[in-house]
Amino acid sequence: MVNGVQRDADVWGGESLLFTLRERLGLPGSKNACEQGECGSCSVLLDGALVCSCLVLAAQADGHDVVTVEGLGAAEVLHPVQQAFVESGAVQCGFCTPGFVVAAADLLARNPAPTDDEIREALSGNLCRCTGYQRIVEAVKMVAERP
Ligand code: FES
Ligand code: FES
């Protein structure tokens, strides 16, 4: 199940979930930056757990629930984290942004009022080369502080 819809794909044994999502299922939101589990740009939720989809075999996801950034919001109706990223200027080149959005949404679902340290810890698996992280932290706080 991908974003609530049953999807079928023929994959080869060593194929990553990231490759399948992007190249076979038409979901390019999850980004391929390192393909080594280092950057978090490919973050998705697998049965509700935050994972790097580049490190998960597509076959391992068979029969499980996957949520990608496309499943969190749409251009017409942004997820609150996406809206806050826009408002706080947390997006520059945007390559890291989908991974941050998924990781931040996961954090806020578990902890609706995180401290700065908890935000930085939760997002420590996501790398950004542009923003310096401050505005990303501010975006997460913005969501947490909204009624
Ligand atoms: S592309 Fe998966 S962690 Fe970097
Ligand atoms: S906005 Fe460019 S890498 Fe994060």
Key features of this structure:
single chain; binds FE2/S2 (inorganic) cluster; 3 strands; mainly alpha; 147 residues; three-stranded antiparallel sheet
Question: Your description of this structure?
Answer:
The protein has a three-stranded antiparallel beta sheet with strand order 2-1-3, with helices on one face. The protein starts with 16 loop residues before the first helix and ends with a helix. By secondary structure, the chain is mainly α. The protein is globular, with a radius of gyration of 15 Å. The protein has five helices and three strands; from the N terminus they run αβββαααα. Helix 2 packs across helix 5 (134-145). It has helices at residues 17-24, 80-88, 97-110, 116-122, 134-145; strands at 43-46, 49-52, 66-67. Helix content is 34%, strand content 7%. The model has no long low-confidence stretch (mean pLDDT 97). The longest helix is centred in the last third of the chain and has 14 residues, at 97-110. It binds FE2/S2 (inorganic) cluster (2 copies).
